[in-house]
Design goal:
InterPro entries: DUF5319 (IPR035165). The chain is α+β, with helices and mostly antiparallel strands. It is about 40% helix and about 10% strand. The chain has three helices and five strands.
Length: about 160
C-alpha cells in the first residue's frame, strides 16, 4: 500500500487538523443556497445597544426567572413558553436556556437566533404570566401568614 495508513498522496493525516469549531455551511458558494436571501447576523453591527430602560427590564427578567425557577421547578415545571412575535408559534425554553438567552441579550444587545424546541411536552411549561401570578400568590400567602403571626403575638 503506497504512502501507508493515514496518508494520501504522500501527505500524512493528523488528528484534529482542519477541524472547525462551528459547522461548515454545506451551501457555501452555491448559487442555489436556500438561505442566500436571509439576513446576515454580521450586518447587525450597526444595531444600537440596549437603552438603560431595556437593560433594566432584562435584569428584572433575570431576577424574576430565578424566583420562578425556585418556586416552579420543584413541582415539575421545566421552563417557560413564549409566543414568538416573528413566527406566531409557542417556543419552549428550559430555565438554563432562557437564562442564557437573557444574558446574551444583556451582553450583546440582540436576541439569539431561536428555533422551536424538539418535541417538548407543553404540560411541563408555563407562561411568564402564569409564573408571575404563581409567585405573587406565594408572596401574598407568606405575607398574610406573617401578618397573622404578628396579630396573634400582639395580644
Amino acid at each position: 500500500m503506497p504512502g501507508g495508513l493515514g496518508q494520501a498522496g504522500g501527505r500524512r493525516w493528523v488528528y484534529g487538523e482542519g477541524v472547525h469549531d462551528e459547522p461548515i455551511d454545506p451551501f457555501n458558494g452555491d448559487p442555489a443556497d436556500p438561505a442566500a436571501g436571509l439576513h446576515d447576523p454580521g450586518d447587525d453591527d450597526s444595531l444600537e445597544p440596549l437603552t438603560d430602560v431595556e437593560r433594566q427590564d432584562v435584569l428584572e427578567d433575570l431576577a424574576d426567572l430565578e424566583i420562578y425557577q425556585a418556586l416552579l421547578a420543584p413541582i415539575g415545571v421545566r421552563g417557560l413558553v413564549i409566543e414568538c412575535e416573528d413566527c406566531h408559534e409557542p417556543h419552549y425554553f428550559d430555565w438554563d436556556l432562557l437564562r442564557g438567552n437573557l444574558r446574551h441579550l444583556l451582553s450583546s444587545g440582540r436576541p439569539r437566533v431561536h428555533e422551536p424546541a424538539y418535541d417538548p411536552d407543553p404540560d411541563h411549561y408555563v407562561t411568564w404570566d402564569y409564573a408571575r401570578g404563581y409567585a405573587d400568590g406565594v408572596h401574598d400567602t407568606l405575607t398574610e401568614s406573617g401578618d397573622d403571626d404578628t396579630d396573634s403575638s400582639g395580644d
